[in-house]
Amino acid sequence: MKLIFMVCAIFTCLSMSSSYIFAASSGDVLEKSLTQTEEEKKPNEQEKITPITDQAKPEAAKAEEQKSVATGTNEGEEEGEEETVKISDPLRPWNNAMYHFNDKFYFWILKPVARGYSKAVPEDMRLAVSNFFSNLAMPIRFISNLLQLKIKNAGNELLRFVYNTTAGVGGLADAAKLDFGIKQHDEDLGQTLGSYGIGHGFYLVWPFLGPSSLRDTIGRVGDVFLDPVSYVTPWEAAVGIKGYDKVNETTFHIGDYEDLKKSAIDPYVSLRDAYVQYRKKKVEETDTPAEGKSQSSKQPVGQPEPAQMSMTKPGPDKQPLEDPEPTKQSDPVPETAKQTTEQTESAKQTGTFFKHAETFFKLPEPKPGQKQVGQKPAEKKELVKSTVPDNHHGSKPVHVQIGLFKNKNNAEDFKEKYKKKGYETFTLECPTKQPGAIYRVLIGNFRNKKEAAELAYEVRSKEKVDAIIYHE
Amino acid sequence: MKKQGIALTLIIFLIVPLSVYAGAPLDSVKGNIDKVLDVLRDPALKGESGKKTKKQKIRSISDKMFDYSELSRRTLGQDWKKLNPAQQNEFTDLYKSLLEDAYADKIINYTDEKVAFSKENQLSEKTFEVQTTVLTKKADIPIYYRVIQKDGQWKVYDVVIEGVSLVNNYRNQFREILMNKSPEVLIDTLKKKVGKA
């Protein structure tokens, strides 16, 4: 505990004593720790604080913590508190001026123009224009996905571009989404920088363009180079096209800014915070592969621990990867999971490769009927999965194995370690031909291999543990 | 025999709440939103006079759906203690009418949008996040409702629209005021905003 506070204090002091630019290079993590210990401090005081407060800071923070522990009852408060994301705003006078400039620009020029335009042009045509421009901006998303190593999403973007440009008549219709349900993966270079752990730096409002930050401005400059419209000559034409795009987009958002202003006590602060929260979400979305998400997030409650399995089900001796038939029955049982995986390493790599290749080119199945209809059964399935034990229909449950142990205690320790990380872990005792047994540490409880494979892939990449599929 | 009976009852008691628990936050939010959608789509409530009844009906639903005191407490966070109990009550009332004014008008204009309920995430022991998507022609807007269990009911204490948490957004605004000014000023500002000055 003490150590954490010391580290926090050192970080805060470092970031405060140096310029704001430095804060830009330190990640979101730092920003967060800053907000946690600095909650009480005014932002404009930050500059004045000298490293002398070094010693006092953790004390104060500790006292604060003890106070809140003592009051006890309001756990919810602390919970909400942690989430606060702040951004430093050293250029507030400039930002404020630009905010007011944009405000006037919106009400005096952009909104009237967009209104007139939307009266003249029917909604479907405006949607087509919007689709056209977003199809054109594919390179931004493609490169950003690639730079974040989101190979599948990048592949999808490429597919979408090809399909929408042809079947969607030059990108006027989002045919890929309608026909195959392949959605756009909104990524830009600002998000990419964010995904590398680079923080916002500071808040920055640009005339015409609106809220941004140091990081996102840098990203945006890069985006301009990736945007084909930028290469239209003469440059006046390029600006004109971008202006038209902006007017067209605005027609779909008339009223949004008005609502924000109406509901806000201080619209400037509200907009700044909304921007930071929105970008934070965008960046975090990139951290986990979208398809593994439903498993990675906390499981629905009420999932019964399949504890009874640890005694009853004698599993096959050893099960490398997805092979249903165990090949070598009576191998000497390896002591740790690491050893097992050495043997299956090559097999697994090819496995992962195939999974990649498969997902890269695979189109999701066309959705029957409306979107809503498509979404509901999925929801139900998940709920059912959480409440009903998995031994239905004679199909055996599939798990993800993250460890294999000869020693029961070691297995239990390993299980507890991952339980603390938020996984639904359990152990399974499997008899061997030799006296004794091996203990598998498993997570998840699925009906089919595909879901388990997704979780295994996710755990592998996230925890750097050798997770393989295991089914009884 | 008796022992077995006791064991059985125990097991039933252990299992039943669990199965009831699962899905309850989602169902509760869904129930309330369905009610709101019913009001919005009610063909009997058209025109200006219909709008007024619509607003009233939505307000009574939102009273049951939201936990405004929890919402207020979380919004102010640590600053909550700066307010005395009377001020806390006044703040809750004003904040509530601010939110109702701001969002009731917006909601009333929705008619043909569909809402899809995707799933629920457990945030803490008592809190869940119910994830929904509003499907519009232009885009799918993710709206998450954060709910807390109070007296056996699930009440919304935060709404997160496209990653922007309502509570966090207002917290930053209120905090800026409370940094330099007293809680009275905050309440006066709110009064002016709501039009009750």
Structure overview:
Chain A is of the alpha+beta class. Chain A has 21 helices and six strands. Chain A has helices at about 1-15, 20-25, 30-40, 55-70, 75-85, 90-120, 125-135, 140-145, 150-165, 175-180, 190-195, 215-225, 235-250, 255-265, 265-285, 295, 310, 335-360, 370-385, 410-420, 450-465; strands at about 205, 210-215, 400-405, 425-430, 435-445, 470. In chain A, the strands form two sheets. A four-stranded antiparallel β-sheet of chain A has the order 4-5-3-6. Chain A has a two-stranded antiparallel sheet with strand order 1-2. The longest helix of chain A has 29 residues, at about 90-120. In chain A, about 30% of the residues are buried. The model of chain A is unreliable at about 1-80 and about 285-395 (pLDDT under 50). In chain B, α3 (about 45-65) crosses α5 (about 85-110) and α4 (about 70-75) crosses α6. Chain B has about 200 residues and is α+β, with helices and mostly antiparallel strands. In chain B, strands 1-2-3-4-5 form a five-stranded antiparallel β-sheet. Chain B is built from seven helices and five strands, in the order αααααβββββαα. Helix content of chain B is about 60%, strand content about 20%. At the A-B interface, α5, α7, α14, α15 and α19 of A face α1, α4, α5, β1 and β2 of B.
